[in-house]
Amino acid sequence: MIKLIKNGIIVTASDTFQADILVENGKISTIGSSLSAPGAEIIDAAGCFVFPGGIDPHTHLDMPFGGTVTKDDFETGTIAAAFGGTTTIIDFCLTNKGEPLKNSIQTWHAKSKQKAVIDYGFHLMIGEINEHVLGELPQVIEEEGITSFKVFMAYKNVFQADDETLFRTLLAAKELGALVMVHAENGDVIDYLTKKAIAEGNRDPIYHALTRPPVVEGEATGRAAQLAGLANSQLYVVHVSCADAVERIAEARSKGFDIWGETCPQYLVLDQSYLEKPNFEGAKYVWSPPLREKWNQDVLWNALKNGQLQTLGSDQCSFDFKGQKDLGRNDFTKIPNGGPTIEDRISILFSEGVKKGRITLNQFVDITSTRVAKLFGLFPKKGTIAIGTDADIVIFDPNVVRTISAESHHMAVDYNAFEGMKVYGEPVSVLSKGEFVIRNKQFVGTPGSGQYLKRAKYSLHTALGQTEMQSI
Ligand code: URP
Ligand code: ZN
Ligand code: ZN
Q1: 3-state DSSP helix/strand/coil percent for the chain, to nearest 5?
Q2: CATH classification of 53-383, choosing from 3.40.50.2300, 1.20.140.10, 3.20.20.140, 3.40.50.300?
Q3: Ligand 3 centroid vs 49 CA: distance in angstroms?
Q4: Which family does the UniProt entry place this protein in (predicted)?
Q5: Mean pLDDT, to the nearest integer, of 357-372?
């Protein structure tokens, strides 16, 4: 069915203007003033912004971790994402040492295919490098369209890879056209500090943060940046939480290295003191890297504003408080790391960022959608509002005032990390490829309608965009 979105204010990463949008066959076919289309369904967006659908570059759905499995799967997770204005996610496909990569990718297809209500792609974890892995990577890129690899520098004896693995992954990525993502924390030092804390009887959630100090993240970020420079490759640092890491990224960028940084809503609005909440409630706020002292928030906001950080991932990795976070009641090292964030990513950035004047409306669109599409091989199919792009569209009412709560959220998890937070703005309707997934704040999508996205290779030219390319 043809749809005509009328009277809204269209916002892209570069422009803000009033126009109507005609949607045909899942794509935007016309943008213009006072459009009419006989027989089209009219969607009135008066008083609303019309954004390109959000793209979340960092999710963990249906993922085994910390002796349990994340509570949200591809159905509940993508429904919650859609309520929050996200129309594409890129999820992390875990791999197992000694096993073909294609088996892991098949596992992730099986988890997602019948369940996702919005489009999705995968990043691939690289835990080891040998001739089998190197032999498979060209196929991973060409056949699966997986053009980003993830290396964990932490979680010793679980996911952690050594520096040789990181360096050789950077070299292979350069040759093949992929973007290397790192979880940058020094896992060996953390391992020592956590064992020491437990031996000394320090078992409460706050010790999760105290055994992963900012310098541990800064050191790993700097190391990864140096190795990327040495390999003349491209690097994307996930979930940047603190000034130390921002400084390492800024330094590397000032040297001309091809390095990008992502932060997450939790680091922008929550802080280390949350881990000290009584009755083990601090466990709800256990992320790696941990929440930091509050002053770091200003550094992160400034980095988003001045372009030293470019994206906002949710790092959605949800565990129930009762029955999952509980696993670490007597030992903080056993608290599953991560939290529920997929639904509130966009509203928090709009409310705390745009409404409070920390970033512009166009920066907001760039950070939540456009730049992600450019970095991860989805642009211009996704990430903007233009003729010929997928009609992934969010009709967003900026004037709604609401309170975030587990009572009203759509994630499957039993708490909300932002409980009680007042936010301005809410998606009213969300379209994926021209079809409503959320209509007047009600879910109307279909599990299995989300399509797997094969992504294009990494290109600095695309990642930067024409204007920035001309200035280097
Ligand atoms: O605590 C976190 N961030 N959990 C998710 C896994 C990861 O490290 O990204
Ligand atoms: Zn991580
Ligand atoms: Zn993550």
Answers
A1: 35, 25, 40
A2: 3.20.20.140
A3: 30
A4: Belongs to the metallo-dependent hydrolases superfamily. Hydantoinase/dihydropyrimidinase family.
A5: 98
